[in-house]
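Every protein is a chain of amino acids, and every chain bends into a shape of its own. The protein below has been through that process, and both of its lines are reproduced in full.
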Amino acid sequence: MIGDKIWRAAASPTRRRLIELLRDGPRTTGDLCGAFRTTRFATMKHLGVLERAGIVTVRREGRERWNVLNAEPLREIEGRWPGLLPPEPPSPGPAVPATPPTPVPSSPAQAVRTSTEAFIDAPPWRVFDALTQNIAAWWGGPHLRSTEATNLVLEPQPGGRFVEEWGHRQGALRAVVTALKQDEHLELSGALAGKAAGVLGIRLERREGGTLLRAELATGEGDAPGSDAAKRVLDDLFRSRLKAFVEEGTRSGVVS
């Protein structure tokens, strides 16, 4: 049955991730293969399953193979794996006021804000993958709660947890995902720079030749680390470690 074929095609986490990567527009096979740590052959086998199920169509332009998402078959299984379908275009109507920024939860005092920027020679989806899927590869000491940390896990969904694992079911909840937009925005609330609770917002903007990353840490005035210390933390994490991991594959995290 057609429905069974679509169900089996979407049952694989790798193939669901391929669908998510294609939601925002066509991608070349080379780009998609670069998003996974498996071999190019293995990724192309997954793409072949999606193509045979009618979920992905392929067009060739010169030597490039472009993969295009066909969302229509996914409507048959929308209830089983919500979020696979691309967002519906907004209906015309009155302008909606912008969502106010998330307040710093730790203190009613005036927030202290520290920010940094980094240009990364890679498309936004690769940077977002490093932020959400491979954070343990580049986030490490001294930005950990314990020297016994063995892994960092971030659940990329609103309400998802950012957990530092210490082995044997031990660890610490570092933060909670309070906002997320695929390949564009990630917001975490928790203790991310030392023990001070705050809100870390990360925004990605597509620029010619790569991605501009902007990170801002907001903490309550009474809880804030020194501005110089917070700036050093942000610079080390995003301008040095994340950038080197995405561009060169340099692993400086807790899992190296």
The two ends are 45 Å apart (CA to CA). The chain is about 25% helix and 30% strand. The helical segments are 2-10, 13-22, 29-34, 40-52, 124-132, 227-248.
